Amino acid sequence: MPNPNHPLKGSIIAVDPIRAIRDVRALKKLLAASQRDLALFVVGINTNLRASDLTRITVGHVRDLKTGGSFTLREKKTGKVRPVVMNKDCIDAIQGYLASRPGATDDEPLFRSQRGSGAITPITLNALVKAWCRAINLTGNYGAHTLRKTWGYHQRVAFKVDMPTLMTAFGHATQRQTLKYLGIGEQEVRDVFMNSIG
């Protein structure tokens, strides 16, 4: 019997980015007790990796990286090889996490399942993000894809990264697709009408 809560084939389920920096900080504080969860969250919101790629990072990919360092990963969805650049927040979170795993070998998954030595799955990541957001009383629809969207949202809104650059980073075909993906297009158009001239 099919799951009645499962979305229909072909339907689109949109998740929200975490828009407020105070909520990002609240989540970091909440996750500070778990080095794995903190590193997973920090790397997720500081890269634009899909859940299927985030969960495939190995210890060897990141063990010796410094701020600004990168490794390459073949995207599961597109099959494209792409560089993944790590900023200071990523490196700090990863180093803190790896310090708690002194015997970790290079071929081990970076983000291990708590039930075994395998990697956490995108389904588990989805459940974790939902639980984290509920724990700080965020309203909206959140899931694994929230991490990737949060990266894009803040690149555009806080750092003013131009649309062609974001479009390329996400691998989108059009700027409109990127604006829709980030959920900021309509608000930006509306804000234009609030600009007073003269």
Structural notes for this entry:
The chain has 198 residues and is mainly alpha-helical. It has one domain (21-159): Intergrase catalytic core (hpI Integrase, Chain A, Orthogonal Bundle). The protein is 47% helix and 5% strand. It has 10 helices and 2 strands, in the order H-H-H-H-E-E-H-H-H-H-H-H. The chain has helices at residues 21-31, 35-46, 51-54, 59-62, 88-99, 122-135, 145-157, 163-170, 175-182, 185-192; strands at 70-74, 81-85. Strands 1-2 form a two-stranded antiparallel ribbon. Strand 1 (70-74) and strand 2 form a beta hairpin. The radius of gyration is 18 Å and the shape is globular. The mean pLDDT is 90.
Q: Gist?
A:
By secondary structure, this protein is mostly helical. 47% of the residues lie in helices and 5% in strands. The chain has ten helices and two strands, in the order ααααββαααααα.
Give the % helix: 40-55%
- CATH-defined fold name: hpI Integrase, Chain A
Largest pleated sheet: 2 strands, antiparallel
Low-confidence stretches: none
- Please state roughly what percent of the residues sit in beta strands, choosing from under 5%, 5-15%, 15-25%, 25-35%, 35-45% or over 45%: 5-15%
Which architecture per CATH? Orthogonal Bundle
Given the structure, what is the number of helices?
10
Order of helices and strands: HHHHEEHHHHHH
**Lateral strand order in the biggest sheet:** 1-2
Please provide the count of β strands.
Answer: 2
**CA-atom Rg in angstroms:** 18 Å
- The total domain count is 1
Q: Going by CATH, what is the homologous superfamily?
A: Intergrase catalytic core
- Judged by helices, strands and strand pairing, the structural class is mainly alpha
Q: What's the CATH class, please?
A: Mainly Alpha
Sum up the overall morphology in one term: globular
Measured between the Cα atoms of the first and last residue, the distance is: 64 Å
> What's the pLDDT, averaged over the residues?
90
